[in-house]
Design brief:
two-stranded antiparallel ribbon; 14 strands; single chain; alpha/beta; globular; Rossmann fold; 326 residues; 10-stranded mixed beta sheet
């Protein structure tokens, strides 16, 4: 992680072994990032950390008045088996990243690009326990993208992963909002002018196919994949697992896309910084940079608006609450 992210009111800690876990600090508003990247270089992880850093900056006055700071703790879940224990009371906000490989770690027994990898599946049981603990704690929230979306679908029984026969998606695609989304107190705002089609940044090897038309109790399908014309696809792409006590705001929610990848200018800056620090290779840098023209031109403003509503606004709203309670 770039070393220049720290500010007076923000710090970042990477947990790859138990001894890396920082001591409890009553002045810290602790946010957990669940890093699902299995050691692979990923712009999305750094984009999430930087986004939270910027949100902390916007709350600088309130943090200063309370003598508090925001601390992001990034847990290497899949490669180092580091899963936070919710019962410790350390975290009330969790953010899950994307990552490579099959969504069932027991099937990742050999290296085959990023469709399948080799990993130790023993992180799954403690992660399921974390999901269960967050689900029953009305004060806690969890938001995720891509791989975390698939894991929540598997844990909840809402949907199962199916490898896309036509190959992975890439670039800006279209999701179709459900009728429940159009009537949702938060997600109805996604439908600009009543249009249920929304642009998202796609990059997925696996579709998540619902087990049945009826979702588990309390869960709401928010969107499915579709073509640009709005023809629906059976793949679930947005799922609300639990709602806040205000009956309006999603409390556990994830998407099978990449809203954390914001404006092209921000991505370019992250790539430059990661290359300079040696956290990505020149090959990875060139591959990711090739997407920048798409980010600059393909439904840019609408994609960014959707990304805020399904990801960054939710995290910001929760972070503000935690800061004001500090």
């Amino acid at each position: 992680m770039p070393l220049d992210l720290g500010t007076a009111r923000f710090s970042y800690v990477r947990v790859e072994r138990a001894s890396d876990l920082p001591a409890p600090d009553p002045t810290a508003v602790d946010v957990a990032v669940l890093d699902m990247n299995h050691g692979y270089s990923n712009v999305g992880h750094d984009a999430i950390v930087t986004m939270i850093r910027d949100q902390a900056g916007a709350l600088d006055g309130e943090l200063a008045a309370r003598g508090a700071r925001v601390r992001v703790t990034s847990y290497a879940v899949r490669d180092r088996l580091m899963v936070p224990d919710h019962r410790s009371g350390r975290h009330l906000l969790y953010v899950g990243t994307g990552g490579p490989g099959h969504l069932d770690p027991h099937r990742n027994t050999e290296e085959r690009g990023t469709q399948f990898i080799r990993e130790d599946p023993s992180w799954e049981a403690p992660l399921w326990k974390l999901f269960e603990d967050v689900a029953v704690d009305e004060n806690a929230a969890l938001y995720g993208v891509c791989h975390t979306f698939g894991l929540l679908c598997r844990w909840s029984g809402a949907a199962e992963p199916v490898l896309r026969e036509e190959g992975p998606t890439s670039g800006v695609g279209t999701n179709l909002l459900t009728q429940q989304a159009l009537a949702h107190p938060w997600f109805a705002a996604l439908a600009d002018g009543g249009d249920a089609r929304v642009p998202v940044l796609d990059s997925r090897y696996y579709d998540l196919i619902p087990r049945s038309p009826a979702f588990p109790r309390g869960m709401t399908a928010i969107a499915y994949a579709s073509d640009a014309a709005g023809k629906p696809d059976p793949a679930l792409t947005m799922l609300e697992v639990a709602r806040d006590r205000d009956a309006r705001t999603p409390r556990i929610f994830a998407v099978n896309s990449h809203p954390e990848i914001g404006a092209a200018e921000r991505v370019a800056g992250l790539l430059d910084r990661m290359l300079e620090r040696g956290t990505i290779t020149r090959e990875v840098y060139d591959q990711r940079s090739a997407l920048l023209p798409v980010l600059r031109s393909d439904r840019r403003e609408e994609r960014l608006r959707v990304g805020r509503l399904v990801f960054s606004d939710l995290i910001e709203r929760r972070l503000e609450r935690l800061v004001r309670a500090a």
